[in-house]
Design a protein that fits this description.
278 residues, alpha/beta, Rossmann fold, nine-stranded mixed beta sheet, two-stranded antiparallel ribbon, 7 helices, 13 strands, globular, binds flavin-adenine dinucleotide
Amino acid sequence: MKIAVCMKYVPIIARIQFDYEAKTIIREGVPSEVNPFDLLGLVRAVELKDSPDDEVVVISMGPPGANEGLTNCVALGADRSVLITDRALAGSDTLATSRALSLALQREKPDLIICGRNSADGDTGQVGPEIAELMGLPHISSARKLDLSDDGKSVVAERITDEGIQTLQCDLPVLVCVTEGVAPELYPNREQMERAEGISAEEVTAADLSADLSQFGLEGSPTWVDEIRLVEPNRLGVFLEDATPEDAAKQAADVLRRRLAELTAADSDPDSWSCPPL
Ligand SMILES: Cc1cc2nc3c(=O)[nH]c(=O)nc-3n(C[C@H](O)[C@H](O)[C@H](O)COP(=O)(O)OP(=O)(O)OC[C@H]3O[C@@H](n4cnc5c(N)ncnc54)[C@H](O)[C@@H]3O)c2cc1C
């Protein structure tokens, strides 16, 4: 059984900054971490290993700095790591990213591919489903629980839907996008990190994946960033502390009633265009 985990090395959210001219996230000099959902996916992949023949390989596409994230994954139990890194990949949108990842995954021939539900920075949630589509694989999204069937030939996953929880069984090979609950959030200790630091990632270039480089990078990206802007939250952020649930519900209802009255008054006043924030 071979499990591949896709890992994006993302800037720590609280430290993210934007280049408004270039319309990109500034990554240089910003501390990064293994994307939180990918960390859970990796921990679950390692838990699913059942025999010495089983293998977990973690794959990332990114600049050389992503090696640090891969080392973290090896420290947590991945057997191997692969870094797809090449200037030809710069400017890739989700489709071009998924193309590169799917070509690298095809070389690995995993039985199970695990992705995170979404990344903490780009946050589109598109890459997992796109890889599945490009590889012609079935795909299970938002899995909060992931097991192998007793015969090891399929996965059993619980996925979160708008209506509740759905349990699905699907034959391998399959791609599963995981979310909270699938595994505990673990971090490597110093010993594990020291052991992993001796195991370098295999580097793969765009040319290793395909002779047609036009499918990667800006040229291979059908979408573009038109504008980026900051949306300032305008909530008051009222905390209802030391209240019983009943009191808290009553206070929240009072605030909402007052807010509705203010909005209604503002609506009926033709001169008033501004509403106090909630
Ligand atoms: C026009 C355009 C240009 C862009 N140019 C750049 C650029 O120059 N530099 C840049 O850094 N970004 C760039 N981006 C952003 C880049 O396309 C996304 O970061 C990338 O496609 C992943 O999308 P996402 O973050 O929404 O991941 P999601 O779809 O939210 O991620 C879901 C899951 O997919 C997997 N995954 C996603 N990305 C990777 C990865 N790189 N490696 C391994 N697994 C992964 C992970 O398991 C993750 O949990 C650009 C985007 C656009 C639209």
